[in-house]
Amino acid sequence: MWSMVPVSHLQLWAFFGLSLIFFFLLARAFSRRTGEAGTTRDSRSRFGILLQSLGIAVAAVGHVKPMLASFSPAGLAGAAAVVLLMGGAIMLFASSSNALGRNWSIVARTRSDHELVQSGPYARIRHPIYLGLLLFLLGLATAYGHWMQLMIAVPIYLVGTKIRTSIEDRLLEQRFGDVFRDYRNSTPALIPRLF
């Protein structure tokens, strides 16, 4: 059985409230997709999606022990950590999906009118949505007190992310050639450079 760290109701409510915002933004991005005629898609990215989802699910597995007083130092620190992680996830997803516009898709693909987006969060990292999802996973584990689950959840999530980023990078390299190779060589995939 997984060991659980006690959490506060404030942590849980912060996570649930911010999750609603995150999923609203996901639904909005999904609903704004346009027709995809002339696309080159790689359905193998669905395996990466499956692994990323499994990693997030593993972080959720186990009992939750809401035993901390919400306004105790530990309860407030836990709630602050959830707000920071989930706030980062929301900001990255919102800014990334807005920057991508019609290029946004769940399955890896390029469109006949695809643009290589290098602005917004894409100026700092090539795959900011996946960093946002990693922050979501960490926010979930923090809210539920599931620190031990991270030893399995994070590697599974990162393997799925590696599959997806490799496929997406290959499709973009096929479409944009040297322009993408220059972008790839100057911009990290998932973790931004500090300097």
List keywords for this structure.
mainly alpha; 195 residues; 4 strands; two-stranded parallel ribbon
Compose a concise summary of this entry.
This protein has 195 residues and is mainly α. Helices cover 62% and strands 5% of the residues. It has one domain (7-30, 43-105, 120-186).
Topology at a glance:
Layout: E1 7-8, H1 9-31, E2 40-41, H2 45-60, E3 66-68, H3 73-100, E4 109-110, H4 128-144, H5 150-176, H6 178-186
Helix pairs in contact: 1-3, 1-4, 2-4, 2-5, 3-4, 4-5, 5-6
Could you explain how this protein is built, in words?
By secondary structure, the protein is mainly alpha-helical. It has one domain. Helix content is 62%, strand content 5%. It has six helices and four strands, in the order βαβαβαβααα. The strands form two sheets. Strands 1-3 form a two-stranded parallel ribbon. Strands 2-4 form a two-stranded antiparallel sheet. α1 runs parallel beside α3 (73-100), α4 runs antiparallel to α5 (150-176) and α5 (150-176) runs antiparallel to α6. The longest helix has 28 residues, at 73-100. The mean pLDDT is 91.
Q: What's the total count of β strands?
A: 4
- Give me the Rg, rounded: 18 Å
The level of helicity is 55-70%
What percent strand?
Answer: under 5%
Instruction: Give the spatial strand order of the biggest sheet.
Output: 1-3
**What shape does the CA trace take?**
elongated
Please, what is the average pLDDT? Answer: 91
How would you characterize the largest beta sheet? 2 strands, parallel
Helices and strands, in N-to-C order? EHEHEHEHHH
Instruction: Kindly report how far apart the N and C termini lie.
Output: 42 Å
